[in-house]
Amino acid sequence: MVITFMILWILTILMIVFDWKTVSTRWAALITFCGGFGGFGRAWTETFMPSLRKYQMSADFLESMTIPLYNIGSFTNTNGLPYAFLMFALYYSNYASKKALRRLSIAAALPMIIMFWITPFQPIVDHNYHLLLVWVGPYVILGSVLLIHAYSKESSPILKRNKLAIMLLALPPVIFQLISNYILRLFHYEDAWRFNIISISVLFLIFSIFIYKWGLFGFKVHIEKVRMNSNLRTLTSGIVLLQHTLKNELGKINILSDQIAQVSSKQNLHEIEQNIKYIQSTSKHVLHMMDRLHHHAQGIVLFEKETPLIELITNSVVSMQSNLKNKSIQIHVSVPDDLIIICDPVLMQETFQNIISNSIEASHANTSIHIKAKMIGEEICMEFKDNGTGITKENMLYVYDPFFTTKGLKSNYGLGLTYCYKVIEAHGGVLQITSEKGNGTSVRINWPKFKSIIHIHHETRDIYA
Fold first, then answer.
1. What would be the CATH architecture of the domain defined by 305-464?
2. What is the value of pTM for the model shown?
3. Tens digit of pLDDT for each residue in 276-294?
4. Neighbour-count burial for 55-89, b at 16+ CB within 10 Å, e otherwise
């Protein structure tokens, strides 16, 4: 039981720390907390206290806690876990409004409250498993059906993959709990629940694999953010030094070239004048790049206002008309007309243009790029999808790194995605990239729901560019 409760409470802590803002994640954390509390009560009774007694380290107040801890842990696990599972499934599958879900959370707690009043706790808790199955069984079955249906109806490949992972993580241990902790007890198999350690260990293994490969409950996003911020701090200090040094030296070159130009013009030295023009042009270009680098090194300041998302997308697409025509690429935009977001329109449009520009460069001629946006649960979800060359697994490790680029350094300095990432982060959102060599790239942007001010009522429409 020690391993069981430790694994479950570690998962609880991780979910709370990394993704507390998402309501469904909080319910998932409550599932593992309730299951872990049951294990803790058993571990206290069967492992901790016997060990303390063996080494004569026990005390009266510790002995007095044994039965209460066991009772509370057992009741929390037996009654709280199925309730938390149903609420997690309801919030995660997003079949009801936020107001309706709050009401359901109260209504669904009534059986648990009734069980608290009718369950004997003296001398130890005595569960009525016949009565428990009357509501626990339907809760587990309904929650399982909701998760399966949410997976089956999902059209986005990325979201479908994540929902499959959630389904594989949640259903096996909860169904095993239903069988071992409720049904088998009716047939006097009192210790079948001890095999829960197997399902919990498998759960932890699968959880770790999915976190590493795909990212769930905000873990991968957090890891990428830490890595990104570390790289950006290094970038900032380097840019400041580089910008200061080069700007001073190039400023001197510019002044000297102006003076030489004045002298040479009097002597009609045409060749010198041409060379001077090249010097001036080069120095001005480098000075311009230094200003851009300095801009990227500074913190992003937002000037937010209410802006239709469709307007930002349309303007971004229009600005790319020449690039699109050169490669005969169509952009299909499916965005709700009445979805208004609170953002800095200048920075957001620049971000969209960066993403679209990357998609155009990666796409083959006579292909298409798809841009979609919709409300999913408590988030505004947006996706830029192309079927271009894609990104290799090796390069995917570095796509967020400042100055990383595969395009060559003549016209691209590798700051585009870094800048996009920071703009979206400044707006309280998350930018994620998934890609496979030869199968295109998907850039997903998720914002919290409070960044929108109008709910979606109208059908989305396609715009062709």
1. 2-Layer Sandwich (3.30)
2. 0.55
3. 676 666 666 566 656 655 6
4. eeebeeeeeeebbebbbbbbbbbbbbbbbbbbbbb
